[in-house]
Amino acid sequence: MNRLSTSWGAYDLTRFPEDPRDQLRAWSAADAYLLRHLAGEEGDEGQGAAAVDLSGTVAVVGDRWGALTTVLAGHARVLVQITDSFLAQQATRANLARAGHAPDTARLLTTRDTPPARIDVLLVRVPKSLALLEDQLHRLAPALHEGTVVVGNGMVTEIHTSTLELFERFVGPTRTSLARQKARLIFSTPDPSRVPDPSRTTAPGPWPRTYVLPADSGAGAGLTVVNHAGIFCADRLDIGTRFFLKHLPRARGGAHVVDLGCGNGVLGTAASVADPDATVTFIDESFQAVASAEATFRANAAEGAKAHFVAGDALAAVPPGTVDLVLNNPPFHSHQATTGATAWRMFSGARAALRPGGELWVIGNRHLAYHVKLRKLFGNAQVVASDPKFVVLRAVKGHR
Q1: What CA–CA distances, in Å, run from 188 to 121, 143, 180?
Q2: 192-223 pLDDT per residue, tens
Q3: Which residues pair with 308 in a beta bridge?
Q4: Which of 66, 102, 188, 248 could form a disulfide with 167 if both were Cys (CB 3.0 to 4.6 A apart)?
């Protein structure tokens, strides 16, 4: 737990799932900078300025662990958070409760939900994915009006010319603040000529995107892949997944397969196409990913094929001892931070969810040494295939 001090008070904040050993903060210098600006402590040129009026509808987009939402909960008349992250949403709930706010103080929406019809203050934490930013600004533009205050925030390394061009395209004239503690703010003024007429249907956005896997894609050959904004390698199959597909195990008839950290769902979909009697559960902490996985599955699976789609924390929602096969391509970044905590949680969750004799198949970069973690958890780890960059590992849960 770490404390964020603001002019509105001090807040003890945590990430989710909460881990007392975690040294990573649940807020950033960019969040603190934005809060100082909203309170009138620091203007766009580093001087004091009038506080931002929060008496209307305030929408907070991409609040990574709920720090902004938690601080503003006692000050915005109508507060809405929009996030692509299940973990961020859970962290927000926990942080709101810790701060003494009622559950309905803020309306928590996902990037797949319909946004508010009118937004008076729009706060945007710049995401790692430029595509996700594009998609969200496109979806939110109809809710803006001439008086909407639009402020983005991020670390200097996260804000690029392409970032500012998106704000220019969807909002209006855009400029940046001075840098403070390696953080920067983005100010956009809604252009009346660009503010859409709410009575008209918004023009279709560029997402989702669809492509067909080529013949050299192993078990995925010929599959139609659907990617919503923000999914890794949205225009083509990434090389790690392509390598995994060439060595994908075939599930036993009627098996329960989990595509863990499913992304666009191509691994689980390939497993279902190979064995239509299998039941496949697609799990990811990204709401965009789960939507992509469902769209990919629907585009390829046989009629009557069984699948479940879960936005969640690894295998926390899967009953123990109910899974035959887990397919996993774990991420090793949590936003900008490199960490092995996510992989460890996935592996330990897989061990609990698997039946005796069930198998976890993992692909990872060779330098991540996942075999060490697997041997510690399962007592075994077999190399199924490898090349100079990737390795596919198989761990089997022993019988009691």
Answers
A1: 11, 15, 19
A2: 776 555 544 456 778 899 999 999 999 999 99
A3: 281
A4: 188
